[in-house]
Amino acid sequence: MNISLTVNGEIIGAEVEPRLHLGDFLREHLSLTGTHLGCEHGVCGACTVRIDGALARACLVLAVQADGCVVETIEGLSDSGEIADLQQAFHDRNALQCGYCTPGMLIAAQDLLVRDAAPDRETVREHLSGNYCRCTGYHAIVDAIVTTAEARRHNAAVSGNPGIEPGHH
């Protein structure tokens, strides 16, 4: 089947098998290997992407279902600079170990920070509950997200735009 979608700002047209999952399409056809495939059952969150602005598991979505949609991967969020501060906080707080879950964690974290400029630790943990990490124990990840939220609020206040949240688009 022929599909057309926008991936990280680029219009992509492709012919795909109807049974091809979006995660496999991104990795194999577009070489966007930041979308990791872990459980392939939608449980681990390693394949988290944004489709039309909403979080989705790329292992559960068929590529044909994304026809006409806007898909954003970790590469797109990273290249645009949207999550540069969050990535730096993950680095500074040692919030990653093996790194396998990190792309999905970053996308989920950014989704939360766009929705809630001041999440408490429990809210962060609840929002990330669908993203598994076998290495960190989550404490450093929560620290990084809370630190980023605080810095964004501070930067917004200093810039005189408290109503505009950084990363919001």
Give the SSE string: EEHEEEHHHHH
List the total number of helices: 6
Globular, elongated, flat, extended or rod-shaped: what is the shape?
A: globular
CATH homologous superfamily of the largest domain? Answer: Beta-grasp domain
CATH architecture of the largest domain: Roll
Strand content: 5-15%
CATH structural class of the largest domain:
Alpha Beta
Number of domains: 2
Average per-residue pLDDT, rounded, comes to: 94
DSSP strand tally: 5
Give a description of the structure.
This protein is of the alpha+beta class and 169 residues long. The chain has two domains: 2-77, Ubiquitin-like (UB roll) (Roll); 83-158, DNA polymerase, domain 1, CATH 1.10.150.120. The protein is 39% helix and 14% strand. It contains six helices and five strands. It has helices spanning 22-29, 74-80, 84-92, 102-115, 121-127, 139-159; strands at 2-7, 10-15, 48-51, 54-57, 70-72. It has a five-stranded mixed beta sheet. A hairpin with a 2-residue loop joins strand 3 and strand 4. The radius of gyration is 16 Å and the shape is globular.
Features:
169 residues, DNA polymerase, domain 1, 5 strands
Short structural description:
With 169 residues, the protein is of the alpha+beta class. The protein is 39% helix and 14% strand.
Question: Which helices and strands appear, and what pairs or packs with what?
Answer:
Elements: E1 2-7, E2 10-15, H1 22-29, E3 48-51, E4 54-57, E5 70-72, H2 74-80, H3 84-92, H4 102-115, H5 121-127, H6 139-159
Parallel strand pairs: 1-5
Antiparallel strand pairs: 1-2, 3-4, 3-5
Helix pairs in contact: 3-6
